[in-house]
Amino acid sequence: MPPLTEKEDRIPDQRWMLQALEQAQRGVGLTSPNPPVGAVIVAQGKVIGQGYHRKAGEAHAEVEAIRDARQSHPELLPGATIYVTLEPCCTHGRTPPCTEAIKAAGIQRVVYGANDPNPQHAGQCHEIFLLAGIEVTAGVLEAECEQLIRPFSKWITTGMPYVIAKAGQSLDGRITRPAGESQWITNDAARAHGRRLRMRVDAIIVGAETIRQDNPQLTLRDGSAGSGKLQPWRVVLTRSGEIPPHAHILTDEYKDRTLIMHGQDLPEVLKELAKRGVLSVLIEGGGLLLGQAFREQLVDEVYWYIAPRICGGGTPSLAGPALSQSIELKNLTVHPMGDNVMMHGFPTWQSQPD
Question: For this structure, is 62 an active site residue?
């Protein structure tokens, strides 16, 4: 039999890394200010341990997987291969370095997907493992692993959180209906999908007019009970400071998770949130806030829900001064949701704002 090519040799690695990615997905939205990470340990062609990072301050994915392997197949752990979606950490933070745990377990090969975007750690595990006689393979399913940690990567390299913009609009681009009609434009399925986005983020941002007009709860619903997810910060931007005292966000059980930002622009608010360890935010409205976010090129990801309705007036989805140029979405996906359509993509910025 001829020797395997490099591409063929990586196919098993990709298979196991996909399982590590599945593990990591379980921690999305739960680990801030750490990134979500998954790990799988393989020996004799089978998984003997797996795990994911559940919460900041708790065990990292590698340690979870090692514990799992020690419980189920301790005799196979020495000499095994560990697959990790992110380069293992090598410094002592709230938990000990994963490089030491891997060495102590007797693992003989480390395969990881994304390099650590933290410049203080990036690439350091290679030398540590090589000096210990452990084989290292990097970059397996790198794009998929990098996509998983986009919020952490932006936060750790720029000091700004990752920004998701969401809107539900009519065919003529309005986010409010004529007076006397229901406040809802999109259907139940679209609204439920939009609420589930809150599970991914550390903060939800709205303008004060949204609170005055809609009195939203901005809470986690739709099956989030028992997930371990902390209620995201509910952040309200206001110029006047006029917030109804009986608004849900000021009176419900999560009132201590509400922040009123008086007289601050969106970029200032984002920087302040980042200092609080907020890696990702969801901008839910209204039109003026969304308009500013796009004008200042602050948006990283977009979810747009469109209903077959023509309102003929009301608030546009992007209000305020006009954009200096149109914005194209890349990696676009389009999903029908009953008679509504959801468009998801990533803005392509042609130039930096002044």
Answer: yes
Burial profile 142-155: b = 16 or more Cβ within 10 angstroms, e = fewer: eebbbebbbbbbbb
Instruction: Give CA–CA dist 219/5, Å, rounded.
Output: 51
CA 224 to chain centre: 16
DSSP bridge pairs for 348: 328
Residue-by-residue DSSP string for 112-137: EEEPPS-TTTTTHHHHHHHHTT-EEE
- Count CA atoms within 13 Å of residue 60 on its CB side: 24
- Residue 272's pLDDT is what? 97
Render pLDDT for 164-206 as a digit per residue (tens, 0 to 9): 999 999 999 999 999 888 889 999 999 999 999 999 999 999 9
Q: Kindly name the residue from 8, 58, 62, 64 that is annotated as catalytic.
A: 62
Residue of 320, 237, 322 lying closest to 284 (CA atoms):
237
**Alpha-carbon distances, residue 3 vs 11, 119, 205 (angstroms):** 14, 38, 56
* Contacting residues for 42 by C-beta, under 8 A, at least 6 apart: 16, 48, 80, 81, 82, 83
Using a cut of 0.85, tell me whether the model's pTM lies above it.
Answer: yes
User: What residue has token string 């891997």?
Assistant: 102
Do residues 184 and 173 make contact, with C-beta atoms less than 8 angstroms apart?
Answer: no
**How many Cβ atoms from other residues are within 10 Å of residue 312's Cβ?**
10
